[in-house]
Write a structure and sequence with these properties.
alpha+beta, Relaxase/mobilization nuclease and DUF3363 domain-containing protein, 6 domains, Arc Repressor Mutant, subunit A, 20 helices, 6-stranded mixed sheet, 26 strands, single chain, BirA Bifunctional Protein, domain 2
Length: 690
């Protein structure tokens, strides 16, 4: 560089700025020139999706939102150096979503990262529900397959990943899946490409789903590479790379999307009540919520895009989501995207519910469909029509209940453990969130004297009684103190000092109300595991019998499932009249005293005799107040409910089952039958409750 060059000074004045503090930042000449050039060019605005280009973005998650963050949470900042980084750099995917090349086939890929899925019940529950009945093309259970097996062993897969730190779950949904020759082959080709990008063999299983309007694949990948080390995948590869590979494979098999085909697909989105690619493009092009669609030079591509947008805006205007402020200038409602997404979700719910009803040969008015985002305030009684994963990626479940109130109820976000007994066809009651008082709250209320709870006194009593499992008395009392600390933050209790807490008189009620307000998950109680038609002719005590003794039918509407229940009640009543368990006096029907207990004992005697013949043991009926002891060997589902089988050396008995006894399968148990239920006791002072 010469001396003249070093001393040369060239002034470059910027834009004149206002002294007013309220004035916005002035736009430079270059910015204004670029904007003017875009308005007169054939290219879409910066960040906009050019509609006819075969966009492969996930409509439900346009920017891969959350996927990158989930991947980075897997190993912290180390995920940036995870497997697949070379592919990300080569394709320019780092830092954000990149449009696929024109003509590429769209493929939706959703990704989720799950911690400790193999060593807990989460992985087993997810695997069980993606293989549930009705997911295959012929309505049979879904078939699990892998890279080399057409019938993979799910239990063996879970056993191999029991100690894995995490697992990855994918949903792969090609837009033109009907044109693929083999969805299973496409999935295997994709996973081989992913293995090549990551530089390791993957242990994975998959299930094809044909139970929705758009077939898709569920893939579960162990969080372990071929060397047994933790599998770390680059976040951008999870968000975008797998979709790029899937799109390329679909395009290779089917061929590129033609201009005419793409135009037809986009035109079909104009009148849809969901968030579409047209909406996404308009939001990206809008500035400060305003979209300028005034006439432009007559170029075929731009004119087609403008026509699509104007037709879509006309639809959105009727929905109150867009307003024409001036000829060709439209204002988009800030709530446009969330509103359309919510409408799309509700539409999906209605369609899936309709399919479930149709599979059972039922028809219902869609106006009777009711979607519950939280626990219902009024209990819902009805028949389970469908049970499935809420988001198909997690473990929470959704129930579709055909209610006796004549409505179809869709209740989502339920704990899978609570729904284990709620089979399709069973009669259930879905109620508000559980507001029962915790045992710790009852203990605190019982220990309080004059409204003061003292942890030191509670510790002395716990040591004196010696009923704390493991003998950790201090830890036992500390759990009560932590509970009080949580309630103090809620304003329910007051801490005076380290050993004194002020407890209100209605402490248990207020604590339970606080828990109910935080817990939005509905409670589900199985009223009968038997279908309605089987209850009519059953010899045990059924839910229909309970309704007959109740007498009142005001909550059972004469339509839908309510009418079916009314007809079933009449048939069950006539059966009791024939068998002598009921008599008619004028317009009234009088039932045998202790009808439910009589029917239950009658069924237990029949089933007990059958089991005694098969087991070679004597059946001993359980009596009220009698202690029962033996080995818990299994359960029996009867019309009268579910019963636990307790065996001794020469005999066995059947007693009412409760979920709390399940962990004791194969072990010695002891309990006392009390009023149709039982109190189980395991060891000294360990009462499992009623």
């Amino acid at each position: 560089m010469s001396g003249d060059d070093e001393n040369r000074f060239e002034p470059r004045p910027g834009a004149i700025q206002s002294d007013s503090p309220k004035a916005g930042k002035a736009k430079s000449f270059l910015t204004r020139a670029k904007k003017l050039a875009r308005q007169h060019s054939n290219r879409p605005a910066r960040g906009a999706a050019r509609l006819p280009s075969g966009v492969s973005r996930d409509p439900a998650n346009p920017a891969g939102k959350g996927v990158k963050a989930a991947g980075r949470r897997a190993e912290g900042a180390g995920v940036r150096r995870g497997r697949g980084a070379a592919f990300v750099r080569a394709r320019g995917l780092s830092g954000g979503w990149r449009h696929s090349a024109p003509g590429m086939r769209r493929v939706v890929v959703k990704t989720r990262y799950v911690r400790q899925a193999g060593g807990s019940g989460k992985g087993a529950a997810h695997l069980r529900y993606i293989q549930r009945d009705g997911t295959s093309r012929d309505g049979a259970p879904g078939q699990l397959y892998s890279a080399t097996e057409d019938q993979a062993d799910g239990e063996a897969f879970l056993a191999r990943g029991r100690d894995d730190r995490h697992q990855f779950r994918f949903i792969i949904a090609p837009e033109d899946v009907a044109e693929l020759s083999d969805l299973t082959g496409h999935t295997r080709d994709l996973m081989r490409s992913v293995e090549a990008d990551l530089g390791t063999k993957l242990d994975w299983v998959a299930v094809n789903h044909h139970n929705t309007g758009h077939p898709h694949v569920h893939v579960i990948v162990r969080g372990c590479d071929d060397r047994g080390e933790t599998l770390v995948i680059h976040g951008d590869y999870l968000a975008h790379g797998i979709r790029e590979r899937a799109s390329a494979l679909a395009t290779l098999e089917i061929g590129p999307v033609s201009e005419r085909e793409q135009a037809r697909k986009l035109a079909a989105e104009v009148d849809q009540d969901r968030f579409t690619r047209i909406d996404r493009a308009m939001i990206a092009e809008a500035e400060d919520g305003l979209l300028d669609l005034r006439p432009e030079p007559q170029e075929a591509r731009r004119q087609f895009d403008r026509t699509l947008r104007l037709r879509r805006l006309g639809r959105l205007q009727k929905m109150g989501l867009a307003t024409e402020q001036a000829p060709g200038v439209w204002e988009l409602n800030p709530r446009l995207e969330p509103t359309l997404r919510a409408m799309g979700e509700r539409g999906d719910i209605i369609r899936s519910t309709y399919r479930a009803l149709k599979a059972d040969g039922l028809t219902r008015d869609p106006m009777t469909f009711e979607v519950h985002d939280a626990a219902p305030q009024v209990p819902i009684t009805g028949r389970v029509v469908d049970k499935f994963l809420t988001d198909e990626m997690g473990e929470s479940l959704t129930l579709v209940v055909d209610g006796i109130d004549g409505r179809i109820h869709h209740v989502s976000g339920l704990d899978a453990d609570r729904l284990e007994e709620a089979k399709v066809g069973s009669i259930v009651e879905v109620g508000p969130a559980d507001a029962a008082a915790r045992p710790s709250d009852r203990a605190i209320a019982a220990m309080a004297e004059d409204g003061i709870y003292r942890p030191s006194r509670h510790l002395e009593q716990a040591r004196f009684e010696g009923r704390v499992p493991g003998g950790d008395h201090q830890g036992f009392v500390d759990t009560h103190v932590r509970r009080l600390e949580a309630l103090r933050r809620a304003g329910i209790v007051e801490r005076i000092d380290a050993d004194r807490w002020r407890i209100p008189e209605d402490y248990e009620r207020r604590a339970a109300t606080h828990d109910a307000g935080r817990n939005r998950q509905a409670t589900v109680r199985v009223l009968s595991a038997m279908t309605l038609d089987k209850q009519i002719g059953a010899d045990g005590a059924t839910w229909l019998d309970q309704r007959l003794l109740r007498g009142d039918r005001s909550d059972i509407t004469p339509s839908g499932f309510g009418q079916e229940v009314r007809d079933a009640l009449d048939q069950r009543r006539d059966r009791h009249l024939v068998s002598g368990d009921a008599t008619r006096q004028g317009q009234r029907v009088l039932y045998r005293r202790n009808l439910l207990a009589t029917l239950r004992d009658r069924e237990l005697a029949r089933v007990g005799a059958s089991l005694a013949e098969r087991k070679g043991l004597a059946f001993r009926p359980s009596a009220d107040g009698v202690r029962v002891s033996g080995t818990f060997t299994g359960t029996v589902q009867l019309a009268s409910g579910k019963f636990a089988l307790v065996e001794q050396s020469q005999e066995f008995t059947l007693v009412p089952w409760r979920p709390v006894i399940n962990p004791q399968l194969g072990r010695e148990v002891t309990g006392v039958v009390k009023g149709g239920s039982i109190s189980w006791q395991l060891g000294r002072g360990r009462d499992l409750g009623f």
